[in-house]
Design brief:
The protein is 31% helix and 40% strand. By secondary structure, the protein is α+β, with helices and mostly antiparallel strands. A four-stranded antiparallel beta sheet has the order 2-3-1-4, with helices on one face. It is globular, with a radius of gyration of 12 Å. It starts with a strand and ends with a helix.
Length: 80
């Protein structure tokens, strides 16, 4: 299952590394990355089915440079 998540952030030193590191450490892998005007749109897939996108979104919101997080769960994972 591939989910999408949109992340707005301030482009301060190390911001992108912190965002991508959090995603990886929380058990997701990147499938696709698009960036425009300090907004990342990522297609991500959980490494195991027990991972929840809403939990990842909450963890990303806690990062200092993150200004907005909008998760777009896949239809399959939203029904699970």
């Amino acid at each position: 299952m591939t989910d999408r998540i949109r992340i707005g952030f301030r482009n301060d030193e190390g911001a992108l590394i912190r965002i991508l590191g959090t995603i990886e450490r929380r058990g997701y892998r990147l499938e696709r990355v698009a960036a425009e005007d300090n907004v990342l749109t990522l297609s991500i897939a959980a490494r195991d089915p027990g991972r929840r996108l809403d939990v990842l979104a909450a963890q990303l919101r806690r990062l200092h440079d993150v200004t907005d997080v909008t998760p777009f769960p896949s239809i399959t994972s939203a029904a699970a």
